[in-house]
């Protein structure tokens, strides 16, 4: 008798189109609106829309906010430090991708 196994993959689909309101982003990341506003002020995430009541965020913002939370919690970084760390991590990932394509 042959035993058959089934692999199940799971993950997130993060669209780059603006789709999340401020409230939805807060709920998805389990943070307060003030935290998101600080990240926007720091330039870490960018909403579309001029007024806060009309802000929309891309799906990628969820990943960035979660990463920021983790860095602050694990390393005790302030928001400026988080933004710098994420920029450096993004650059490393980009360079690794370029190396892998060579």
Structure commentary:
The structure is a single chain. The protein is 55% helix and 4% strand. With 102 residues, the chain is mainly alpha-helical. It has one domain: Multidrug-efflux Transporter Regulator, Chain: A, Domain 2 (Orthogonal Bundle). It has a two-stranded antiparallel ribbon with strand order 1-2. The chain is globular and about 45 Å long. It starts with 19 loop residues before the first strand and ends with a helix. The relative contact order is 0.15.
* CATH architectural type: Orthogonal Bundle
User: What is the strand tally?
Assistant: 2
Major beta sheet, strand line-up: 1-2
Please identify the structural class as seen in this structure. Answer: mainly alpha
Short description:
With 102 residues, the chain is mainly α. Helices cover 55% and strands 4% of the residues.
How is the secondary structure organized here?
Blueprint: E1 20-21, H1 22-29, H2 33-41, E2 56-57, H3 60-75, H4 79-101
Antiparallel strand pairs: 1-2
């Amino acid at each position: 008798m042959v035993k058959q196994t089934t692999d199940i993959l799971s993950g997130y689909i993060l669209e780059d189109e603006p789709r999340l309101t401020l409230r939805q982003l807060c709920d998805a990341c389990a943070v307060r609106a003030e935290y998101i506003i600080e990240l926007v002020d720091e330039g870490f995430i960018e909403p579309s829309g001029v007024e806060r009541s009309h802000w929309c965020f891309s799906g990628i913002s969820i990943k960035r906010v979660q990463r920021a939370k983790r860095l602050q919690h694990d390393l005790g970084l302030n928001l400026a430090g988080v933004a710098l760390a994420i920029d450096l991590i993004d650059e490393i990932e980009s360079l690794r991708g370029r190396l892998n394509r060579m």
